[in-house]
Each structure stands twice: as structure tokens, then as C-alpha cells.
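step 3/5: co-fold with flavin mononucleotide
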Amino acid sequence: MPATKPFHDVVHKRHSVRSFRPEPVPDEILRSVLEDAQRAPSNCNTQPWQTHIVSGATRDTLSRAMLAADNAGVHSPDFSFAISDFKGVYEQRAKDQGAAYYQAIAVPRDAYDQRRDASRRNLEFFGAPHVALLFMPEVGDNVRVAGDIGMYAQTFLLSLTAHGLGGIP
Ligand SMILES: Cc1cc2nc3c(=O)[nH]c(=O)nc-3n(C[C@H](O)[C@H](O)[C@H](O)COP(=O)(O)O)c2cc1C
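step 4/5: write C-alpha cells
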């Protein structure tokens, strides 16, 4: 098993990475990350996650399809992600995050084309060589399963950091 960093360092070093080197990560490391993530707790040990990792030409094809759909205004989210859903302090934090992000990449507030281009970096996976797609079954109101997926995702991200890698949800 590859050597990893102490837990405290890992928790504090993890952050959302939005720029990546293009070289693929060796399979052995990806497998080690998946094995770590698999240790996440879940309701009644149901482990309700299915992870697909896409790389290379498949990753490129997926990105192109998502960019084309976005260009055509075709969006089909499985759940709401409107910023306006957030109220009070949560709305403020979301606004602060957006402001800090656009300032960091030097995009002015009213430069809508540049903001749109920046937002489309999501659909280019920020240049990451691998994309992990997390699938979940529908179970009741989905709250328990979504909670489990969150625990899995955080364990996955912490493991990336522990392996000297980075990621973004
Ligand atoms: C469920 C989830 C979805 C997210 N979606 C995006 C996204 O679409 N684009 C993006 O740039 N960041 C996204 N983020 C990253 C958050 O902006 C980030 O986690 C937050 O600002 C805290 O920063 P940190 O991860 O660097 O600590 C997402 C985070 C989570 C947990």
C-alpha cells in the first residue's frame, strides 16, 4: 500500500482543486483511493454507491457531450441546485464563495461571458485526467443514501490528498 500523510495534515490540506496536471494517475494509486473510500460508513452497511472512473478518450467524449448539451441549453439535474434555495447565513456564504472564486480567477462581477466560460470549466472537469462519477440508488426520500454518498465522497477526497493528489466535488 502506498505511504500516506498523517490524518490532521490530510484534513487541513484537502481543498477543492480547479487546475490539474494532465498525466494519468497509476491504476495502483486509483485502486488504493477506491479501497479507502470503500471504508466509509453507511446506513445499515448498505454501501449505496457505485463509482465509475472515466479517463482518456472516454473522459474527453463525456466532456464534449456535456459542453454540447450546455451550449444547447439542455440540462437535466436530478436535484435542485439553485443558489436561491439558500437563505440567511447560507445564502451569504454561497455569495462570498462565488465572489472569492471569481476574484481569484480575475473575472469581474458583471463580465457574464467570462463567468460563463469559467463555469464551463466544470464541464471540462477542470482539466483533471480522471473523473469519478458517483451513482446512488433511489431509496425512500433519498436522504439516507445522499448522506452515505457524502461520507463516501469525503473519504474519497481525503484519500486523494493523502496520496498527494487533489480533487473537487
Ligand atoms: C456537493 C458539492 C458540490 C460542489 N460543486 C462544485 C462545482 O460544481 N464547482 C466548483 O467549482 N466547486 C464545487 N464544489 C466545491 C465547493 O465550492 C468547495 O467545497 C467549498 O467552496 C469549500 O472549499 P474547499 O473544498 O476548498 O474547502 C462543490 C462542493 C460540494 C461538497
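step 5/5: annotate
Helices lie at 7-13, 27-37, 56-71, 88-104, 112-120, 143-162.
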